[in-house]
């Protein structure tokens, strides 16, 4: 479990998280910032879901009507539920950000943060 | 007490929000929002009285028993902050109709009140819940509502300020989510009291340490601790005036409450001995206090001066958390209470000026003190409380913080606090001088004072700033009890 391949999900999480954060900070285009934010949030979702998988775990569904053996190990379904909520939050945030960009474009005619800063200084 | 009151506290504003979307009559929207906010204050007071008499209240949402279901948990600390949030919300909404009609127009009023109700529901939910993921959900509800509210502002720069606030706020909330995920992977539960029990024996575990680091950075970003404060001046200055007053009194304070709740979950010994986080918080807060006050001096817009002052004052609150001990934590909580009242009153007074003359630039405010005597004298009272004159509520927090600093022998911290107090005199005097002692540049003959129905909530807040500075049994008494609760000192 301590090998590189055993920790694969954590590596993916870290690389995506840092990439997303870098895009948010370094790119001036507002849409690229939103994309970076999305990558950042997706990395967190991947992390959460990957910790739900238990080694040797079965699918967490119980068949009603038949006898349920006591000693089955199930994978954890709770992180999936939490991430559904977090995905909805992420979608709402992206929708809000994009609608703000549409209105910013109507107002300033550019969507680069540094150019908007220049326009603000002149105002 | 009716057993479902904790759920109702959050559900009433949450249900009022979509109802407000369906209404278009401005009177009806206003009355509904007043009804909702004052009933949340009434419920918060009832719950708090119950907590004082009977101890901690736990409410299992949906009847699911505690480690499996979501728990609403009210103790002295959450009850105190609940009353503060509900009070600020009620006063601000009562004040809100005329100004919002002028700034937004009658056709967008339903959006405003719906989002305000969502914001209140989110803020109350953060304070009342005992489940860590529930905190994230309500944090995002309140954050999305506040981004949209800032974007409703009438200034040209409102949209880009809202966008920058959105990017930084979402980064902060996602950091908090990472922290929650790491804690869940190490403990297997999301209930905050259960987590506190389960991490007691694994405090050296690197997963717990990284969870704590991520949570702290996320909360500091939401609380606008220097240098993560850059979203605040733009968001406060260009939002609709009522939104600024409401956010200034509640949003950053609720994030500071979240940090105090984390101190309880991780245990005070963890924060104040194992981890060098307290030094980082103390130095960042000091920088925030001094930089916020210094930047406020350079501004020419009254709202921006008050916004940078808010950066400085949240530095006071987090400095108290960094200093620790009963004195430091009591100072934090007392300052949360005192600063919310005073800053909200100050922003409401500036909002009244905006309503009358359409701008909050200092050059346009000249001579308004004589035309709007009642409003601006309330502003002077709240400025006294912000400076920290003795006998005001703002003084108490600084008194406890200076005591806490001197107790530990850190005289330079006490000196910085006094210096920041002097700086706040300078920038608040700048506003007061323009109001009272300068001749008006433009035509303000027709300016009258605001109607009595708006003066009453404003004077309620300004009077409360003075009243709670003299009669301190409520704020100091319950802050001390909450500080002892956080430090685990049993009575």
Task: Describe this entry's structure for a reader.
The complex is a heterodimer of chains A (123) and B (491). By secondary structure, chain A is mostly helical. In chain A, 66% of the residues lie in helices and 0% in strands. With 491 residues, chain B is mainly α. Chain B has helices spanning 5-22, 26-54, 76-95, 97-104, 109-128, 132-151, 158-187, 192-198, 206-222, 231-238, 241-266, 268-274, 277-297, 302-323, 325-357, 368-371, 373-387, 393-407, 411-436, 452-470, 475-487; strands at 57-60, 71-74. The longest helix of chain B is centred in the last third of the chain and has 33 residues, at 325-357. The model of chain B has no long low-confidence stretch (mean pLDDT 91). At the A-B interface, helix 1, helix 2 and helix 3 of A face helix 6 and helix 7 of B.
Question: What are the defining features of this structure?
Answer:
heterodimer, A: mainly alpha, 0% strand, B: 491 residues, mainly alpha, globular
Biggest sheet descriptor of chain A: none
The best one-word shape of chain A is elongated
Low-confidence stretches of chain A: none
Terminus-to-terminus distance of chain A: 58 Å
Number of helices of chain B: 21
Compute the CA-based radius of gyration of chain B: 21 Å
Class by helix and strand content of chain A?
mainly alpha
Strand content of chain B: under 5%
SSE succession of chain B: HHEEHHHHHHHHHHHHHHHHHHH
Q: What is the alpha-carbon Rg of chain A in Å?
A: 21 Å
String of helices and strands of chain A: HHHH
Question: What value does the average pLDDT of chain A take?
Answer: 90
Pick out the low-confidence regions of chain B: none
What oligomeric assembly is this protein in? heterodimer
């Amino acid at each position: 479990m301590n090998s590189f391949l055993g920790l694969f999900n954590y590596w993916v999480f870290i690389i995506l998280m840092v990439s997303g954060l870098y895009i948010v900070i370094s790119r001036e285009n507002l849409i690229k910032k939103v994309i970076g934010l999305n990558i950042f949030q997706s990395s967190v979702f991947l992390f959460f879901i990957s910790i739900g998988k238990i080694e040797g775990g079965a699918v967490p569904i119980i068949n009603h009507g038949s006898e349920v053996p006591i000693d089955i190990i199930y994978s954890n379904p709770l992180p999936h539920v939490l991430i559904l909520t977090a995905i909805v939050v992420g979608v709402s945030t992206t929708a809000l950000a994009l609608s703000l960009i549409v209105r910013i474009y109507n107002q300033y005619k550019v969507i680069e943060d540094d150019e908007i800063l220049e326009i603000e200084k002149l105002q | 007490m009716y057993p479902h009151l904790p759920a109702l506290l959050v559900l009433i504003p949450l249900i009022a929000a979509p109802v407000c979307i369906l209404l278009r009559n401005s009177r009806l929207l206003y009355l509904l929002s007043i009804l909702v906010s004052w009933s949340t204050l009434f419920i918060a007071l009832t719950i708090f009285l119950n907590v004082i008499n009977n101890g901690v209240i736990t409410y299992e949402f949906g009847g699911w028993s505690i480690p499996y279901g979501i728990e609403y948990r009210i103790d002295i600390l959450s009850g105190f902050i609940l009353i503060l949030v509900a009070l600020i919300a009620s006063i601000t909404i009562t004040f809100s109709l005329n100004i919002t009609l002028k700034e937004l127009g009658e056709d967008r009023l339903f959006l405003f009140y719906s989002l305000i109700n969502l914001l209140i529901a989110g803020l109350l939910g953060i304070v009342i819940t005992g489940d860590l993921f529930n905190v994230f959900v309500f944090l995002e509800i309140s954050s999305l509502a506040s981004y949209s509210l800032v974007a409703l502002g009438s200034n040209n720069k409102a949209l880009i300020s809202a966008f920058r606030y959105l990017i930084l706020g979402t980064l902060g909330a996602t950091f908090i989510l990472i922290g929650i995920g790491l804690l869940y992977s190490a403990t297997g539960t999301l209930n905050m009291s259960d987590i506190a029990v389960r991490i007691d024996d694994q405090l050296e575990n690197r997963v717990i340490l990284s969870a704590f680091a991520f949570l702290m950075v996320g909360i500091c970003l939401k609380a606008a601790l220097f240098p993560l404060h850059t979203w605040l001046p733009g968001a406060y200055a260009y939002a609709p005036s009522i939104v600024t007053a409401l956010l200034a009194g509640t949003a950053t304070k609720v994030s500071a409450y979240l940090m105090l709740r984390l101190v309880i979950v991780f245990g005070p010994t963890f924060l104040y001995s194992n981890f060098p986080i307290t030094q980082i918080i103390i130095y960042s807060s000091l920088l925030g206090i001094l930089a916020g006050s210094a930047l406020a001096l350079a501004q020419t817009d009254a709202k921006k001066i008050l916004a940078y002052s808010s950066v400085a004052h949240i530095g006071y609150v987090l400095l108290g958390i960094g200093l620790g001990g009963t004195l430091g934590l009591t100072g934090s909580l007392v300052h949360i209470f005192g600063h919310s009242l005073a800053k909200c009153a100050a922003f409401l007074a500036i909002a009244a000026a905006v309503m009358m003359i359409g701008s909050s630039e200092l050059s346009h405010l000249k001579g308004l003190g004589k035309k709007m005597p009642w409003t601006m004298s309330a502003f002077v009272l709240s400025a006294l409380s912000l400076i920290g004159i003795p006998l005001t509520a703002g003084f108490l927090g600084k008194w406890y913080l200076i005591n806490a600093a001197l107790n530990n022998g850190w005289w330079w911290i006490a000196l910085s606090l006094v210096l920041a107090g002097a700086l706040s005199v300078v920038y608040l005097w700048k506003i007061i001088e323009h109001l009272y002692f300068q001749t008006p540049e433009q035509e303000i003959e027709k300016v009258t004072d605001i109607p009595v129905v708006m003066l009453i909530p404003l004077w309620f807040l300004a009077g409360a700033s003075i009243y709670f500075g003299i009669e301190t049994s409520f704020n100091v008494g319950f802050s001390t009890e909450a500080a002892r609760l956080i430090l685990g000192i049993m009575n």
